[in-house]
Amino acid sequence: MTEEAANIPLQWVGPIKIIGPEVEGEIEVPLATYEMPLWPSTNRGASICRKAGGIRTVLLDDRMTRSVLVEAKDVETAYNASQKLHQRKEEIAAAIRETSGHVRFVDMHHQIVGNLLYIRLEMTTGDASGHNMVTKAADHVLSWICTKYPELAYVSISGNYCTDKKVSAVNGILGRGKSVISDILLPRTLVKKYLKTTPEQIVQLNIKKNLIGSIIAGGVRSANAHFANILLGLYLATGQDASNIIEGSQGFVHTEVRGEDLYFSVSLPNIIVGTVGNGKQLDFVKKNLQKMGCTDCESGANARRLAIITCATVLCGELSLLAAQTIPGELMSAHLSIERPIGASQ
Questions:
Q1: Structural domain for 151, as ranges
Q2: Is the predicted pLDDT of residue 339 greater than 90, yes or no?
Q3: 136 noted as active-site residue
Q4: Residues near 159 by beta carbon (within 8 Å), at least 6 away in sequence
Q5: pLDDT by residue (tens digit) across 277-314?
Q6: pLDDT on residue 343
Q7: 1 within a domain of the structure (yes/no)
Q8: Is position 241 annotated as part of the catalytic site?
Q9: Residue in 190, 289, 269 with CA at minimum distance from that of residue 222
Q10: Per annotation, catalytic residue among 102, 165, 209, 254
Q11: Domain holding 139: CATH number?
Q12: Catalytic hit among 35, 61, 107, 139
């Protein structure tokens, strides 16, 4: 097996002006992508948001999860065990702390299907995204459970109730990763001058495309135009596990016309990022994280800062794309002018 490096074009966009309780300032953001229109589009969103005073961004929740799966002989045994486990949360928290100095128990939930007992463990993991940390902790808890409750038998260290890198409703409801919301009020004059559209057109497109379109498509807790594009670009540039864009891209755009102006917001309940761990040892990743100020905060705050920057960047990209899609032909002309190979005849 040989190791090679894949070169992905990367450009910095912004600066993006962020205001909020944890992050304040103008921050440039790296996006690694083959979809080159993403850079000027996100940059356009960042520019108008700076002119409007900045993007308010708040991190609501922070937790990583792993669900273990055990089985009993029947449903009554599984149910009784589940009730006893909830009464021993302090012991479970202590068992989790034994596995790492950075992991802390937050909560647990369960589901029973027949004789199967799914236990969803939730933890904070400091500056790490936490996949391995919670798996190690869950493995230790699983051994503790099977020892304390011999009527339960091991099935799997991961029962898919986590839910890891799959589309689900549970992550948005109970939380997995960092839940972040960004919003901004954009004056009509700026919308017309820099986005070439109106607040009413953007609000109507969000309703008809993001909301109704996602419903008829059968979307799961998702109503947005292209969260995944910005997430992937930022994840690749900062050494993240890029497959986390699956649950990360499940989120919502909410818009309103307020007087003459446009209220625009993005809600991302499952941003999974870290500033330490595998991938972060690469030189270009270190430089990118350092330039964004995501290496100098106190423990745990670096990853939170990165999640906040990520959400604000998503807002910039989403705003610009929706504006473009209110104008016939603009989206395709941008792709043709930026991505069309030189000398192409078709």
A1: 63-156
A2: no
A3: no
A4: 67, 68, 69, 118, 119
A5: 888 888 899 999 999 999 988 888 999 999 999 999 99
A6: 43
A7: no
A8: yes
A9: 269
A10: 165
A11: 3.30.70.420
A12: 35
